[in-house]
């Protein structure tokens, strides 16, 4: 009799455990299909969308494509006014192409010989003082326009760091400008060294594009210093600036624009009467860099991995959720203008289309289709970036049960030179106190170049990363207790 009771107890316990495991196993993996991912990414990251630059018609066309695909997947609109869209305005300022600059009464060509580093209205008609080295800064420089060779920054950016030439230039200019600013100079002209000249197409394109912001969203709360005109010139102009009596005349004007950008927002309802009022938010961005400097005669920066890979992965998760809904609802936000400074996610985190308190977790991804099929990275996993141990545990459990990635946590280290944690759309949500993780398969040589095309995507890797995100979201959906924020 005791043996029968013991056997019955074990049977019931085993059944309960099996039921719990079954509830935690994502039931609709078959709806994440390689052929769908491949078809979608070749469409979205093809040349027809011209790189999907924020604030352009190309971004709008891409957003409409995403909304149509979401509707076809069975996802319901969750944007403004019963639509799939949440529009907001980007405020852009740039140096006007009407600007004119001359050195020694000889015109210099804007964006080919000289590059103002920020959009700042500048009217100069002044002599130029050549500084042979930073040692010359001991002289009285107050009110003067100075020119000098750019000096390599100390320390140099880490070897192999992404966009190395741009980082080298920015850091060098920042370091030298800080010294010269304290001396009271009126303007600074930096002569490019070989490193800067070797990267000037990319660097100059960024200066030419200007600055973007979203009205009402504060990105940098640090104290701002008075703007100072700073220009970079090609090395060929060094001789003219070193001449006795060198002189600059500049009339730099500014253009200001209001551009629309857009988040695409959709949802799939949950099955539990109470938990369905809460959301697991899947996050990515649909924009990229648009038309830029040509590389091997290709000027379309397609952004297949960055971030069409996640855009189509989220569509696949949406198909799975519609087929087999979780207890909690799923919210999908494809952000616009990420490449211009996380503008879409900053806007949505400040103006969510659902109750912000109902968002229990954000599962964000950026670049999930390259590098080894057995490796991935997860950010938001190490203090001070980790804000929810419970959410991290769910992601690692999903990986253990399903995808078996060797997870690289090193890029989440606060001392990692890339600062990768701060460069994707989970950040505004984490700053708003919502548990958040960032899935990625990390950088590669085609990052932010026209070579990031669909042919370079490992579809099997993309599918595997998509399944990891889906499985993590499924665990969040099925667990009654919402992932808790860590105490610190």
UniProtKB/TrEMBL annotation:
The keyword Nucleus does not apply. Keywords: Signal. InterPro entries: M28_fam (IPR045175), Peptidase_M28 (IPR007484). It comes from the Bacteria. One of its GO terms (molecular function) is metalloexopeptidase activity. The keyword Nucleotide-binding does not apply. Residues 1-23 form the signal peptide. Residues 263-470 form the Peptidase M28 domain. One of its GO terms (biological process) is proteolysis. Pfam families: Peptidase_M28. PANTHER family: METALLOPEPTIDASE M28 FAMILY MEMBER, PEPTIDASE M28 DOMAIN-CONTAINING PROTEIN. This is Peptidase M28 domain-containing protein. It comes from Mucilaginibacter polytrichastri.
């Amino acid at each position: 009799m005791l043996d029968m009771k013991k056997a019955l107890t074990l049977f019931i316990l085993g059944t309960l455990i099996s039921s719990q495991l079954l509830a935690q196993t994502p039931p609709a993996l078959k709806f994440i299909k390689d052929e769908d991912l491949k078809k979608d990414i070749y469409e979205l990251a093809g040349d027809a969308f011209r790189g999907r630059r924020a604030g352009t018609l190309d971004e709008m066309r891409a957003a409409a494509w995403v909304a149509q695909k979401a509707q076809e997947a069975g996802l319901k609109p969750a944007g403004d006014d019963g639509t799939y869209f949440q529009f907001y305005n980007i405020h852009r300022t740039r140096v006007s192409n009407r600007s004119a600059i001359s050195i020694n009464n000889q015109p210099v060509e804007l964006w080919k010989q000289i590059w103002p580093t920020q959009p700042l209205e500048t009217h100069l008609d002044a002599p130029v003082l050549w500084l042979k080295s930073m040692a010359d800064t001991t002289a009285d420089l107050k009110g003067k326009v100075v020119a000098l060779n750019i000096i390599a920054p100390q320390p140099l950016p880490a070897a192999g760091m992404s966009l190395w030439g741009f980082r080298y230039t920015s850091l060098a200019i920042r370091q030298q400008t800080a010294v010269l600013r304290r001396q009271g100079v009126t303007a600074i002209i930096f002569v490019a060294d070989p490193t800067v000249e070797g990267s000037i197409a990319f660097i100059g394109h960024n200066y030419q594009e200007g600055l973007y912001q979203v009205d009402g969203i504060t990105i940098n709360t640090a104290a701002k210093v008075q703007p100072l005109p700073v220009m970079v010139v090609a090395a060929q102009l060094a001789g003219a600036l070193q001449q006795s009596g060198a002189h600059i005349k500049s009339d730099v004007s500014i253009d200001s624009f209001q551009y629309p950008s857009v988040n695409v927002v959709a949802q799939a309802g949950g099955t539990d009467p109470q938990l369905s009022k809460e959301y697991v938010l899947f996050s990515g961005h649909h924009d990229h860099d648009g038309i830029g400097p040509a590389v091997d005669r290709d000027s379309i920066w397609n952004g297949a991995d960055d971030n069409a890979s996640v855009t189509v992965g989220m569509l696949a998760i949406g198909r799975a959720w519609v087929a087999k809904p979780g207890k909690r609802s799923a919210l999908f936000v494809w952000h616009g203008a990420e490449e211009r400074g996380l503008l879409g996610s900053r806007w949505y985190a400040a103006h969510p289309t659902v109750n912000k308190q109902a968002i229990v977790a954000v599962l964000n991804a950026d670049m999930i289709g390259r590098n080894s099929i057995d490796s991935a990275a997860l950010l938001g996993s190490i203090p001070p970036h980790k804000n929810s141990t419970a959410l991290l545990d769910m992601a690692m459990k999903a990986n253990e049960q399903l995808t078996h990635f060797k997870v690289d946590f090193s890029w989440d280290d606060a001392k990692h030179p890339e600062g990768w944690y701060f460069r994707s759309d989970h950040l505004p949500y984490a700053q708003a106190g919502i548990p958040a993780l960032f899935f990625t398969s990390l950088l590669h040589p085609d990052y932010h170049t026209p070579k990031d095309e669909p042919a370079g995507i490992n579809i099997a890797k993309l599918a595997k990363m998509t399944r990891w995100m889906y499985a993590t979201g499924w665990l969040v959906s099925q667990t009654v207790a919402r992932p808790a924020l860590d105490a610190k």
